[in-house]
Automatic annotation (TrEMBL):
Record key words, sorted: Isomerase, Membrane, Rotamase, Transmembrane, Transmembrane helix
Gene3D superfamilies (alphabetical): 3.10.50.40
Listed name of the protein: Peptidyl-prolyl cis-trans isomerase
Molecular functions (GO terms): peptidyl-prolyl cis-trans isomerase activity
Entry's transmembrane regions: 36-58
InterPro entries: PPIase_dom_sf, PPIase_FKBP_dom
Family of the protein in this entry: Belongs to the FKBP-type PPIase family.
PROSITE patterns, alphabetized: FKBP_PPIASE (PS50059)
Domain PPIase FKBP-type: residue ranges: 144-239
E.C. no: 5.2.1.8
């Protein structure tokens, strides 16, 4: 019985279903197509990424070059402005120095009495009076301007000189206008002057030292109380803020 079973021929394999092999071929073909689609999509995505990176790098480079060009242009413009400002300032300084020397030459010392001037004084609401002796051609003096002046001051009535920058070697007197560094009549009287202008100021005591006598260190009265003051003032140049006393002190 056992021998018979050993020698028995095995049954033939079961044939596949109709069309199964064709379906398998189609499935393999579809899988290959999907792989190709995925590969192509990956290549396209990689190409897009490379293009985007390339564009970003080019844009960054162009932006950097544009910024560098703008910086260079701004620097060149700033340098040009600085050079022009320096040249202008140097020219103004040269002109101011020449003007001071000319004034010193014409006034080796301050006149002892007020020189005669032509013209009717202009009177302001405060009581200040002024006459333009010589027009200026430079910039206008405004509140906050720091200006160097040559000046001589007298007491009206006695016409006695009490102070003059020319008596101090022609050293200009620097004032920051409108900062109460000088008497009110000066602050008001020099405002609106042009550089190079000479102006006579007639300042009532209410805009000067009031009723109080002004004395020197020895106690001598230099300017009596209630005195009206006369100043001939020349605006020489714009300058740096000062640290000095008022005229006459």
């Amino acid at each position: 019985m056992t021998q018979t079973m050993k020698n028995q021929t095995p049954p033939p394999s079961r044939p596949g279903r109709p069309g199964q092999r064709q379906q398998e071929r189609l499935q393999r073909k579809q899988r290959r197509q999907r792989r190709l689609v995925l590969l192509f999509s990956g290549l396209v995505a990689l190409a897009i990424l490379i293009a985007a990176l390339t564009w970003a790098l080019m844009a960054a480079r162009q932006s950097s070059e544009a910024a560098a060009h703008a910086d260079a242009t701004a620097t060149a413009a700033a340098n040009a402005v600085t050079v022009n400002a320096t040249q202008t300032a140097n020219a103004a300084n040269v002109q101011a120095t020449a003007d001071v020397q000319s004034l010193i030459k014409a006034n080796p010392k301050g006149p002892d009495t007020p020189p005669k001037v032509d013209g009717t004084p202009t009177k302001t609401a405060s009581g200040l009076q002024y006459v333009i002796i010589k027009p200026g051609t430079g910039g206008a003096v405004q509140s906050g301007s720091t200006v160097a002046f040559e000046y001589t001051g007298w007491i009206q009535g006695s016409n006695k000189k009490f102070d003059s920058s020319y008596d101090h070697g022609g050293q200009p007197f620097a004032v920051t206008v409108g900062q109460n560094q000088v008497i009110k009549g000066w602050d008001e009287g020099v405002t609106g002057m042009k550089i190079g202008e000479t102006r006579r100021l007639i300042i009532p005591s209410s805009l000067a030292y009031g009723d109080k006598d002004q004395k020197d260190q020895s106690g001598k009265v230099i300017i009596p109380g209630k005195a009206t003051l006369i100043f001939d003032v020349t605006a020489v140049s714009f300058t740096q803020p000062p640290a000095q006393q008022q005229p006459g002190q």
